[in-house]
Design goal:
Elements lengths: L17 H9 L4 H24 L1 H14 L10
């Protein structure tokens, strides 16, 4: 669904806790890469959280239909 890896990088300003930043540098961390990866993960999480909420009613109706009628191709299942 999401493919952030091939997008170009864009410079930005962040305000970070100075002690955390200092420790990250001491540990040899690539702060930009770390923040980018964590931000991408949070964007995915929030996207799916919002999608689930927006589609909550449809999902509930689908689940109720499956509970009532069963899976459409269940007779062809081999497991």
């Amino acid at each position: 669904m999401f493919s952030f890896g091939d997008a170009p990088k864009k410079a930005t300003n962040l305000s970070l806790n100075s002690k955390v930043l200092e420790m990250a540098r001491e540990l040899g961390m690539n702060v930009s890469q770390t923040v980018d990866e964590l931000l991408a993960a949070e964007v995915r999480r929030r996207y799916w959280e919002r999608w689930s909420e927006e589609n909550r009613e449809a999902i509930a109706e689908y689940n109720a239909r499956i509970a009532r009628e069963g899976l459409p191709l269940a007779k062809y299942r081999t497991f």
